[in-house]
Amino acid sequence: MATKDKSKRNNRYEWRQVTLNIVGKNLDPDKVSAVLGIQPDDWARRGEPFGKNKKTKQGYWTLEGGPSTWRIETQMRSILKRIASVKNLLRRLIGEDETVEQAYLTIAVMLPRGIAVSGYCVNAEVINEFTSLGIDIALSIHVAAEIDRVVMDHRKKIIANN
């Protein structure tokens, strides 16, 4: 769960996103959906369009934890509720399906401007529910100022090339 900070009082926005990802070079997301009986929030096969002039390098099947304003642990618990009835099927899919190269839970955060440090603590039992299924935990830290810089640099290149 995220610690309380002053970001809401200052109308700053702390972005948090938790996703369950099943990926593999030859992964067929339709097969994952059929095995689990759950429709993903996002999916693609290798080679499908991704962004401008890009194609996915691997297949993926993804469940989202909820709105980015929800706490990290709330989003994790939301995913656990969605997979509760198919945990054994998911464990078997991750462990036995040769097209599944990796299964991981991404915990992504971006602090609001002006906040240097924010602490997060997630209940060990919640973490264990994922890891006991063979799901790794990945952290993705986004720096607001750097994202703005990268986007502006990209826009300048587009303008210069036109």
Task: Reconstruct the topology from this structure.
Elements: E1 15-24, H1 29-36, E2 42-44, E3 59-64, H2 72-83, H3 87-96, E4 102-110, H4 124-131, E5 136-142, H5 144-161
Parallel strand pairs: 4-5
Antiparallel strand pairs: 1-3, 1-4, 2-3
Task: Walk me through what this model shows.
With 162 residues, the protein is α+β, with helices and mostly antiparallel strands. The chain has one domain. The chain contains five helices and five strands. The protein has helices spanning 29-36, 72-83, 87-96, 124-131, 144-161, and strands at 15-24, 42-44, 59-64, 102-110, 136-142. Strands 2-3-1-4-5 form a five-stranded mixed beta sheet. Helix 4 links the parallel strand 4 and strand 5 (136-142). The termini are far apart. The model is unreliable at 1-11 (pLDDT under 50).
Report the count of strand segments: 5
Measured by DSSP, the beta-strand proportion falls in 15-25%
What percent of the residues sit in helical stretches (DSSP H or I)? 25-40%
Number of helices: 5
- What spatial form do the alpha-carbon principal axes imply? flat
Secondary-structure-based class equals: alpha+beta
Largest sheet: 5 strands, mixed
Strand order of the largest sheet: 2-3-1-4-5
The radius of gyration is 18 Å
Low-confidence segments, given as residue ranges, are: 1-11
How are helices and strands ordered from N to C? EHEEHHEHEH
For the structure shown, list the relevant keywords.
about 160 residues; single chain; alpha+beta
Summarize the structure.
Helices cover 35% and strands 22% of the residues.
